[in-house]
Amino acid sequence: MSDTHEAPANEASDDVMNHDSTDAAQAGTPGTVPASAPDAANADIASMGYEQARDELAQIVTTLEGGRAPLEESMRLWERGEALADHCTRWLNGAQSRIEEAVARQENGSERA
């Protein structure tokens, strides 16, 4: 008999465990940030050079490691830091590709001579 009473409880807990977190974000659950907020706040990053982005990222890391920023500010900084790190990675990958292309052109030019 106890099996019949346990099944609904398990089903209910399964429903809770399988709850889609995007539903909570769309419902405006406290602590959620709209998906477009980080993009809008980080729009200036695309125009930054590598050194500027790297320097700002280093400042963010120092601030976060200090542990004195409130949670919301820490989350904002972390999101910006992620965007800055991605920008730096893309910039470095692009630079590496340009160097490899230049070396390949030079090698092809010296083989023809």
From TrEMBL:
Molecular-function annotations in GO: exodeoxyribonuclease VII activity
Organism superkingdom: Bacteria
Localization (cell): Cytoplasm
Pfam families in the record: Exonuc_VII_S
Major subcellular location class: cytoplasm
UniProt entry keywords in alphabetical sequence: Cytoplasm, Exonuclease, Hydrolase, Nuclease
A single GO BP: DNA catabolic process
Catalytic activity: Exonucleolytic cleavage in either 5'- to 3'- or 3'- to 5'-direction to yield nucleoside 5'-phosphates
Enzyme Commission no: 3.1.11.6
Renumbered residue ranges of the record's region Disordered: 1-47
Enzyme class per UniProt: hydrolase
Entry annotated with the keyword Nuclease: yes
Function statement: Bidirectionally degrades single-stranded DNA into large acid-insoluble oligonucleotides, which are then degraded further into small acid-soluble oligonucleotides.
Subunit organization: Heterooligomer composed of large and small subunits.
Similarity section: Belongs to the XseB family.
Protein name (record): Exodeoxyribonuclease 7 small subunit
Name of the gene encoding the protein in the UniProt record: xseB
